[in-house]
TrEMBL record:
Protein name as annotated: histidine kinase
Segments forming domain Histidine kinase: 54-266
CDD domains: HisKA (cd00082)
Catalysed reactions, as listed in the record: ATP + protein L-histidine = ADP + protein N-phospho-L-histidine
Length: 266
């Protein structure tokens, strides 16, 4: 009976008062319920998928219009007047809203497996180089030097696009939360099971009580509200690493700096 149930071929054969008949009909009901639960889950997933693409599609036009009209308005205003300053605020908030919608759509696509993470065994060097290249301009603006120290043979099992995004988020934070002229180091270390990519900075650091909170959705420390960001970066990093069979750890000391360690399976 169990084997037939697993193969999806189970049919009741006894219709009498015997114990076997009772077991058979319960087994049948159980199989029906689990098939139903699976179907409901699929329908729910399809609904979420539809909802997400509606949100991302329907907000595109109003967002583009807000940007366009504020651009037109800025051409009419004197550059250093009060109105121009207020308009600047509107433009900055519109940009933040656009970023937020994009990040939320991406996150929920990732969570509902609409966007797939496909880890494959690859060289780590090109991954680090392109993540560093992406952040270089921002780092230069703050005169921050990014150093790579790595085991050149390092290989790990990861999805190139998503892991690059995760590393970019870590580097972006390292640059954002570090003082001008400081240094950021990205390094690798190989263990029996893991390839660890570490991103270290000499920035503001994170207190022990704060550490469990920083991976939560929308968490931002009070002191960093003036920096750009919406508090979704580290949540996304953790989600990506989990999907690759890895995990993230952080060591930090307030006022001295932080090291984020990404564990990727080898
Ligand atoms: P965001 O940077 O947009 O605020 P994140 O999810 O990337 O969002 O980070 C959450 C919070 O964790 C940040 O607001 C900041 O308080 C803290 N944090 C993250 N990275 C660092 C870092 N390298 N140094 C100090 N604090 C950090």
């Amino acid at each position: 009976m169990l084997d037939e149930g697993i193969r999806g071929e189970f049919e009741e054969s006894k219709y009498d008062e015997s114990e076997l008949s009772k077991v058979e009909s319960k087994w049948k009901r159980f199989l029906q319920d689990s098939a139903m639960a699976k179907q409901n889950l699929e329908t729910e997933k399809a609904n979420i998928k539809g909802l997400i693409s509606d949100i991302s599609h329907q907000t595109k036009t109003p967002m583009a219009n807000i940007k366009l009209y504020s651009e037109l308005l800025s051409e009419q205003l004197e550059e250093d007047g009060m109105e121009a300053e207020l308009l600047g605020q509107i433009q900055a908030q519109a940009q933040k809203l656009e970023f937020l919608i994009q990040a939320l759509t991406k996150l929920s696509r990732l969570e509902t497996n609409i966007l797939e993470v496909v880890p494959v065994k690859s060289q780590v060097k090109p991954l680090l180089e392109s993540a560093v290249e992406e952040i270089r301009k921002k780092a230069e603006k703050k005169e921050i030097q990014i150093k790579i120290e790595m085991d050149f043979e390092a290989e790990a099992v990861f999805d190139r696009k998503w892991t690059e995004e995760a590393l970019y988020n870590l580097l972006d934070n390292a640059v954002k939360y570090s003082p001008t002229g400081s240094e950021v180091l990205i390094s690798t270390k190989l263990y029996e099971m893991w390839c660890v990519i570490a991103v270290s900075d000499r920035g503001r650091g994170i207190s022990e009580e704060e550490i469990p909170k920083i991976f939560g959705r929308f968490y931002r420390a009070k002191e960093v509200q003036q920096e750009e960001g919406v508090g979704i970066g580290l949540y996304l990093v953790r989600e990506i690493l989990q999907k690759e069979g890895g995990f993230i750890k952080v060591n930090s000391e307030v006022g001295k700096g932080s090291t984020f360690l990404c564990y990727l399976p080898r």
